[in-house]
């Protein structure tokens, strides 16, 4: 883990730049004491922790049965095809996460001494808010550490990661053992409790003292002071609703099959309750945003965002990227001047049901292998560019066949698809990448979507209480999946009989829920982690489809080379070498 011994080594560059390279002026080397009188400097430690948050679109999809990439030197491709080791781990978060936790712990140990504002009421609120952010961010990083590095050791114990809640100095004992998985989860929950206590659920202006949440009235009863600290200007900072959402994420992870163990006390019912707390705040399942499944391409909504507001689908997001076309440059087909990085697989295409709700493998689906793209789940055409579909500002027809004569054809160029498909999700079709008339558009990258929480509830509730059980909540797993599928456009003309069939069978509902999660969250970097927490098949050969002159020819694209122990990621090899008390997960060397 990364240990920062000197304050000089972890401060942000908030001071003026040095006039001499490697010879900084003394006034530029800030100390802890200066943190107490410089609120901006103190807040910089939190800002640095925000900057290290793992990206939502991490493209781990390349290492799953949902996608491959034409970047043949890509780390995820190499990992999935046999080069994943404890010393070569593209999904490790160990060093950046512990580095961020160092900043957070330093901040928490000193926050009470900082003069946050001249107004004592505002100062008290600032202290509460920033401590709440810090606790929430520490929980966030522990979640990502557990997801990437928790697992069973050679002696059969379910281990988490070292729990570090104090700033480590040169005098600290840094040879720390891994805490149990359960202890780590409980530490996350404690931090989330602290975050929720110190933060409003959302940053919203108030107009009267009565609208100030009760726990903050001890600090102020003046709306103008509350709004200064907890109002709209703080939007997109960590808030109480984000803390609830991470509680739901941690609960789902901990309850999953990969982490079932007598030492783990988190249950499916806990996970369902945590997700329900977010859904209930939203207003129940009837409030699932109608346009939530196309959050990335709701152009007028995106272009109209201002003042830190979120679309209804979004709980947390990154800042707006204005006049941007990065995603399109990376993923558009070659004839739209893109690099075609993300290539959806036939495996994923086959997971989209027919519009009548039946899987394509079901005899009642009316699937026609000679016309495989007709009558499908509407999400298929929204999320994937296939042979004969249109894309881009001019609705260009995209031909992907190897003999199509198009640069978009399979393996024609280094930027062409390897599967016969291109990703459409995440992209705005009104972006123009033509060098002669390049035009970018506004984008945002999510951090948490409401749909994710709905799907988490459905999964946990089905496991805890069955398809129709609700555990005291006003909705069941069946109810949630029904609204998601209705929004998608499934079973609108026939009452979705396949869903009705599944509601009487927990195992069939489990597979349906997992498939809905796969479709709704495809290309959003969930599949890699879901397959592992489910202990599902990691070795499914990735397939493509070559379409030429109306003939559909399936073919194998890429084998997956995973071992069973790879359901759990490794502790970095370098850390195990350095620290004798760190025990590696079983199988990793």
Automatic annotation (TrEMBL):
Gene3D superfamilies, alphabetically?
A: 1.25.40.390
PROSITE patterns membership: PROKAR_LIPOPROTEIN (PS51257)
User: A single GO CC term, please?
Assistant: cell outer membrane
Keyword line? Cell outer membrane, Membrane, Signal
Under InterPro entries, the record lists: SusD-like_N (IPR033985), SusD_RagB_dom (IPR012944), TPR-like_helical_dom_sf (IPR011990)
Residue ranges annotated for the SusD-like N-terminal domain, each copy included: 56-204
Q: Which domain of life is it from?
A: Bacteria
Q: By its UniProt entry, which SUPFAM superfamilies does this protein fall under? A: TPR-like
Which one Pfam family would you cite for this protein?
SusD-like_3
Q: Where in the cell is it found?
A: Cell outer membrane
All residue ranges annotated as the RagB/SusD domain in the record = 313-588
Family, according to the entry, reads as follows:
Belongs to the SusD family.
Q: What is the protein name stated in its UniProt record?
A: RagB/SusD family nutrient uptake outer membrane protein
């Amino acid at each position: 883990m990364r240990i920062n011994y000197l304050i000089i080594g972890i401060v942000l560059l908030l001071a003026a730049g040095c006039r001499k390279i490697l010879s900084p002026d003394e006034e530029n080397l800030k100390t802890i004491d200066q943190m107490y009188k410089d609120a901006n400097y103190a807040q910089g430690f939190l800002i640095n922790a925000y900057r290290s948050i793992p990206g939502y679109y991490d493209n781990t999809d390349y290492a799953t049965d949902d996608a491959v990439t034409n970047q043949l030197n890509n780390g995820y491709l190499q990992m999935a095809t046999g080069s994943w080791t404890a010393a070569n781990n593209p999904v490790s978060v160990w060093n950046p996460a512990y580095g961020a936790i160092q900043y957070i712990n330093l901040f928490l140990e000193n926050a009470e001494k900082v003069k946050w504002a001249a107004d004592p009421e505002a100062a008290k609120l600032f202290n509460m808010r920033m401590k709440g952010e810090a606790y929430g961010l520490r929980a966030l990083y522990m979640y990502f550490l557990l997801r990437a590095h928790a697992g069973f050791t050679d002696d059969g114990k379910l281990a988490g990661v070292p729990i570090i809640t104090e700033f480590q100095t040169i005098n600290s004992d840094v040879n720390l053992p891994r805490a149990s998985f359960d202890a780590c989860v409980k530490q996350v929950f404690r931090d989330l409790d602290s975050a929720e206590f110190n933060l409003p659920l959302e940053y919203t202006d108030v107009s009267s003292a009565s609208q100030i949440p009760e726990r903050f009235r001890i600090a102020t009863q003046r709306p103008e002071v509350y709004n200064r600290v907890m109002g709209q200007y703080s939007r997109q900072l960590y808030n109480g609703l984000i803390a609830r959402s991470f509680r739901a994420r941690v609960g789902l992870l901990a309850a999953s099959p990969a982490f079932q163990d007598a030492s783990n006390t988190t249950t499916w019912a806990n996970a369902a309750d945590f997700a329900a707390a977010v859904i209930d705040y939203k207003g129940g399942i009837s409030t699932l945003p109608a346009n939530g499944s196309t959050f990335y391409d709701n152009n007028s909504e995106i272009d109209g965002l201002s003042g830190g507001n979120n679309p209804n689908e979004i709980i947390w997001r990154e800042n707006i990227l204005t006049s941007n076309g990065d995603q399109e440059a990376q993923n558009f087909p070659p004839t739209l001047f893109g690099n075609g990085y993300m290539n959806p697989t036939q495996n994923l295409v086959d997971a989209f049901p027919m519009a009548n709700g039946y899987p394509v493998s079901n005899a009642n689906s009316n699937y026609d292998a000679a016309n495989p793209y007709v009558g499908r789940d509407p999400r298929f055409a929204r999320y994937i560019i296939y042979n004969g579909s249109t894309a881009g500002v001019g609705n260009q027809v995209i031909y992907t066949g190897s003999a199509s004569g198009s640069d978009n054809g399979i393996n024609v160029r280094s930027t062409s698809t390897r599967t016969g498909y291109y990703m459409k999700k995440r992209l705005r079709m009104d972006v123009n990448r033509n060098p002669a008339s390049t035009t970018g558009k506004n984008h945002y990258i999510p951090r948490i979507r409401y749909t994710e929480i709905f799907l988490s509830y459905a999964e946990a509730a089905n496991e805890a209480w069955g398809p129709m059980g609700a555990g005291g909540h006003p909705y069941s797993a069946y109810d949630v999946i029904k609204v998601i599928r209705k929004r998608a456009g499934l079973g609108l003309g026939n009452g979705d009989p396949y869903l009705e069939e599944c509601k009487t069978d927990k195992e069939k509902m489990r597979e349906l829920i997992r498939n809905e999660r796969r479709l709704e969250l495809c290309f959003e970097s969930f599949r890699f982690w879901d397959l592992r927490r489910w202990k599902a098949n990691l070795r499914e050969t990735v397939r493509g489809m070559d379409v030429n002159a109306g003939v559909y020819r399936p073919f194998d694209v890429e084998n997956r080379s995973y071992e069973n122990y790879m359901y759990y990621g490794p502790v970095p090899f370098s850390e195990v070498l350095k620290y004798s008390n760190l025990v590696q997960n079983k199988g990793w060397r």
